[in-house]
Amino acid sequence: MLTTILAVVVCVVVLLAVIIKVFFSIEGDPEVVVDTKNRTKFTVTKKDDKSVTLTSKVEFKNIGKQCSTIVDCLVRPQLPFEQYDGIDARAKAEVDGVPREDDYFEAYLIEKHESIFINVIVRLAARKGMDIDTALSHMVDLPLDIITTQLGRRPWWMSKDRIILAAEEISEATGVKLVKE
């Protein structure tokens, strides 16, 4: 009798697990795609003698079946001094239309089959006593890693996408002619 009850309980638990697994596979997960290929060109949003700030808009598309939360988004410039030490590169991400002065990225929901736009903001400051135009005239390509932490039906996960801010694009946006070295 006890083994029959135990067998029925085990069968019910297994059946419940299968039903839940099928339900979640039908319902699906969020899947956020960072569309770096169709980003806007970087444009100057601020410039003085020592620095320039450039901004590009990048689309984050949720092509999945569930709502996703972008918990954090940061932009990491990859410009070591060994490559070029005339510029100090800093970057951040902001949801388009929701600027923040504290560089904090507030979590943002992306409903299924919808998109949001995130501004990638890069500040380039001249170093070694140079003015910004002189420093930019020797500029090299600047890789920018967009790192996001996301939540959905499954536990959080991270993703990394890359934009290359070419020296030619910086030159075009700022009007500074590149020096051939």
Structural commentary:
There is one protein chain. The chain has 181 residues and is of the alpha+beta class. The strands form two sheets. Strands 1, 2, 3, 5 and 7 form a five-stranded antiparallel sheet that branches. The chain has a four-stranded antiparallel sheet with strand order 6-4-8-9. It is built from three helices and nine strands, in the order αβββββββαββα. It is 22% helix and 41% strand. The longest helix has 26 residues, at 2-27. The protein starts with a helix and ends in a 7-residue tail after the last helix.
Could you say which overall geometry the principal axes of the C-alpha atoms support?
A: elongated
Biggest sheet layout: 5 strands, antiparallel
Distance between the termini: 88 Å
- The arrangement of helices and strands along the chain is HEEEEEEEHEEH
Count of beta strands: 9
Measured on Cα atoms, how large is the radius of gyration?
23 Å
What does the average pLDDT come to? Answer: 91
Q: What percent of residues are in strands?
A: 35-45%
Number of helices: 3
Produce a short descriptive summary.
This protein has 181 residues and is of the alpha+beta class. The protein is built from three helices and nine strands, in the order αβββββββαββα. Helices cover 22% and strands 41% of the residues.
Strand-helix topology:
Layout: H1 2-27, E1 32-35, E2 43-47, E3 51-62, E4 68-77, E5 87-95, E6 108-110, E7 115-126, H2 132-137, E8 142-151, E9 157-165, H3 167-174
Antiparallel strand pairs: 1-3, 2-3, 3-7, 4-6, 4-8, 5-7, 8-9
